[in-house]
Amino acid sequence: MRKNFFKDRAVNQIIIFLQIQFFIIEKMYKVFVNDKPIILTTEVKKEKHFKNYLMRTVNIGKVIRELNSTDLKGVRIIGKSEKKLLKSFLKKLPNVVAGGGKVFNDKGEILFIYRNDKWDLPKGKIEGNESIEETSLREVEEETKVNGLKIIKPLETTYHIFKRNGRHQLKITYWFEMTSTYKGELIPQEDEGITKVEWLNPTQVKKAMENSYANIKLLV
Asked: Which of 38, 89, 134, 184 fits a 20 to 30 Å CA distance from 27?
């Protein structure tokens, strides 16, 4: 009986430890500048080729310039409250909200677009009074001509900084796993810079990720 007590207590301690670790991971956000991460966290770490900045005093323009022009691998922005990390950061740049899809066909292949010489998943900005689900479905169909789309579940939200008309903006993209039985022609939306649309099998996806974006790799 005593042996079982200690065994059960050890198991419970492991479970609690894993729950704590999961909570910490959940409260760490990555915002990409090209493929370099800005990590939003409450923990200060010293690591080669990384810098730490405080959330309340950080100059985002300076951080972006450093990531684009030096050998820094990334930046950590340190906040006091885990609950306010993302909210505090979102106030520092204009936000653009978008939706997109990771679409599977009945063969288990994933729908990809090729734009700006990179493999990407279809996505686009929200319009009017659309829900984010409506945006995601519309953008996938517009960019690929795949229809009969069905949302299965939400995926991880991604964040990346881009420059438009001389101003940096933060794109927040809500992603959804989708399915479709569409077997028709795939037609790229050329006026959006898309040159190819393809269903890729797992081996092809792995190869495509050698020429994709860091935030897409998080989803695939």
From this structure: 134
